[in-house]
């Protein structure tokens, strides 16, 4: 078999209409990601795309948006204590969870309620 999965290209999250300014502020200012332009054919739909290194998060607009409380991207970080402090300093909730052996991790939410997990192996 020559066809194999090789990487995750991006994670898609949803957000309510009109939330792009809050999302831009959070994903660039708080998480330190860079906004990347959407292709013109997709930009008309609203939403925003962000990246940092190999991590890509696309946030699309959903008219009847409701944040999902369980599903989430798990994002690896270095300097997790400092990163958590950065989020907390910006008013983002930081909930530590020690139930994953071999990892230090916490959960937070973006401005529209999407759950995000940040983790660092020991």
Would you mind describing this structure in some detail?
There is one protein chain. The protein is of the alpha/beta class. The protein is built from three helices and eight strands, in the order E-H-E-H-E-E-E-H-E-E-E. The strands form two sheets. Strands 1-4-3-2 form a four-stranded mixed beta sheet, with helices on one face. Strands 5-8-7-6 form a four-stranded mixed beta sheet, with no helix packed on it. Strand 7 and strand 8 form a beta hairpin. It is globular. The termini are far apart.
Concise summary:
The chain has 122 residues and is an alpha/beta fold.
Structural class, from helix and strand content?
alpha/beta
- Pattern of helices and strands: EHEHEEEHEEE
Tell how many strands the DSSP assignment holds: 8
Q: Treating each run of at least 4 consecutive H or I residues as one helix, how many helices? A: 3
Helix content: 10-25%
End-to-end separation in angstroms reads 35 Å
Q: Gyration radius, to the nearest Å?
A: 15 Å
| Largest sheet data | 4 strands, mixed
Shape: globular
Low-confidence segments? none
Average predicted confidence as pLDDT? 95
Order of strands, main sheet, comes to 1-4-3-2
Please report which band the strand proportion falls in: under 5%, 5-15%, 15-25%, 25-35%, 35-45% or over 45%.
Answer: 25-35%
Domain VOC: 7-121
InterPro entries: Glyas_Bleomycin-R_OHBP_Dase (IPR029068), VOC_core (IPR037523)
Protein name: Glyoxalase
Which helices and strands occur, and which strands form pairs?
Blueprint: E1 11-15, H1 20-30, E2 34-36, H2 40-43, E3 48-52, E4 55-61, E5 74-76, H3 80-89, E6 95-97, E7 103-109, E8 115-121
Parallel strand pairs: 1-4, 5-8
Antiparallel strand pairs: 2-3, 3-4, 6-7, 7-8
Domain VOC: 7-121
Organism: Streptomyces capoamus
Protein name: Glyoxalase
